[in-house]
């Protein structure tokens, strides 16, 4: 209703009653409801993302589909060479600098071992076709968004809003309004979007491709995502309640019991009761990057991050004072900042001990054990001791003649 009203006002001269009606509708839509913990449906005043399926639409034939696929493939590879990457470098990062983050996909969890044999559990995150969709200045963000009025100018100074898209998708599934932002940036249609607060000295260019090497091995990051969706759960599972006694109790073993029959005889807001559990935004800070696979665009993070397998996670630099990144690529990593591959993998592949298809261009933390290196290392002192007499055997007395 609001969308049709805005369209009618923009296409014809607006009378006084239309402006008043628009103001009232906007105020009613933005009213906050008390007690709401999550919003599972998009707000009604935003344009639809997916193209609605019409019952009277004519399906495309095979020839038209092939032609459309060729056009989509060419449109996806037309951008990227005209960017000015002369300012990108691996340099010191200031205390107030805020870099852009990555939109990654959670693959699962795998164990890693340190050089002393300690087993640590890591989360594997995949960076899938990340590109910068738009860069919004603090002045424009302050004018056009209620969130911008709170975050565009904060205690850290002016902040730019940088939108990052991930996972290329078929553009025919999305509406015209959703595709327009990608057409302006000259990049393929993205399935997932994420926004980050960035300072002026670390602004990337629109359409810039983001790599897994945007982060450095050994640094600490912050992961934000939605927790596992458990659906409707009872009080014991949702809040960890003990439950009622198992003896002399009928039909109330897992019930929460009395909720408000004493005193004011009412349910106070925030009462812990059965309901929807999970699927809420949670941020975990101080996670260490211990391994990066550059070929597969995979990041190994020590610990666990919120979300189920396949969920979208937002990664950014940690802002804690003792865990801030001191030196790294600014504003982001580009192919001209190539690093020299380590010699141990090349030697192992040349000797034939490890197949080449099992070796990738990876970066490891110094404390992580690598299976391409030997488990036992013999030094010169060990060789000298081995050359001496074997003390495990008994002495044989020599007979004098």
TrEMBL record:
Q: Report the Pfam families cross-referenced here.
A: Ribosomal_L3
Which domain of life, per UniProt?
Eukaryota
Which GO MF terms are attached to this record? structural constituent of ribosome
Q: Which UniProt keywords apply?
A: Ribonucleoprotein, Ribosomal protein
GO annotations under biological process? Answer: translation
In its keyword annotation, does this UniProt entry include Hydrolase?
no
Of the GO CC terms on this record, one is: mitochondrial large ribosomal subunit
Ribonucleoprotein keyword on record: yes
Which family is it part of? Answer: Belongs to the universal ribosomal protein uL3 family.
Please report the name of this protein according to its UniProt entry.
Answer: Large ribosomal subunit protein uL3m
Organism (species): Caenorhabditis angaria
């Amino acid at each position: 209703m609001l969308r049709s009203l805005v369209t009618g006002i923009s296409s014809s001269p607006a009378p006084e009653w239309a402006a008043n009606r628009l103001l009232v509708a906007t105020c009613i839509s933005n009213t906050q409801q008390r007690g709401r913990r999550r919003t599972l449906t998009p707000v009604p005043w935003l344009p639809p993302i997916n193209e609605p399926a019409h019952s009277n639409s004519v399906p495309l034939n095979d020839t038209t589909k092939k032609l459309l696929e060729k056009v989509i493939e060419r449109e996806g590879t037309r951008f990227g060479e005209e960017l000015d990457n002369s300012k990108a470098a691996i340099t010191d990062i200031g205390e107030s600098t805020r870099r852009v983050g990555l939109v990654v996909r959670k693959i699962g969890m795998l164990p890693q071992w340190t050089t002393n044999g300690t087993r640590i559990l890591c989360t594997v995150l995949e960076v899938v076709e990340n590109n910068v969709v738009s860069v919004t200045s603090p002045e424009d963000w302050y004018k056009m968004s209620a969130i911008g009025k709170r975050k565009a100018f904060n205690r850290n100074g002016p902040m730019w809003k940088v939108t990052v898209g991930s996972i290329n998708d078929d553009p025919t599934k999305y509406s015209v309004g959703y595709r327009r932002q990608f057409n302006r940036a000259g990049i393929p249609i993205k399935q997932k979007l994420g926004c980050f607060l960035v300072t002026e000295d670390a602004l990337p260019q629109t359409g810039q491709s983001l790599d897994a090497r945007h982060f450095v091995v050994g640094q600490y990051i912050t992961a934000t995502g939605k927790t596992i969706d458990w659906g409707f759960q009872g009080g014991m599972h949702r809040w960890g309640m003990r439950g009622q006694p198992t003896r002399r109790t009928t039909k109330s073993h897992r019930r929460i019991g009395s909720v408000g029959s004493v005193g004011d005889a009412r349910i106070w807001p925030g009462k812990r009761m059965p309901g929807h559990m999970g699927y809420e935004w949670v941020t975990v800070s101080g996670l260490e990057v211990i391994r990066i696979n550059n070929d597969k665009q995979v990041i190994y993070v020590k610990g666990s991050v919120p979300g189920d397998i396949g969920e979208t996670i937002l990664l950014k630099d940690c802002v804690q004072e003792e865990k801030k990144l001191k030196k790294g690529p600014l504003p982001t990593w580009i192919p001209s900042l190539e690093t020299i591959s380590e010699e141990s993998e090349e030697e192992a592949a040349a000797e034939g001990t490890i197949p080449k298809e099992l070796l990738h261009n990876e970066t490891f933390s110094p404390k992580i054990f690598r299976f391409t290196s030997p488990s036992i290392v013999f030094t010169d002192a060990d060789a000298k001791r081995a050359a001496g007499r074997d003390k495990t055997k008994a002495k044989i007395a020599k007979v004098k003649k």
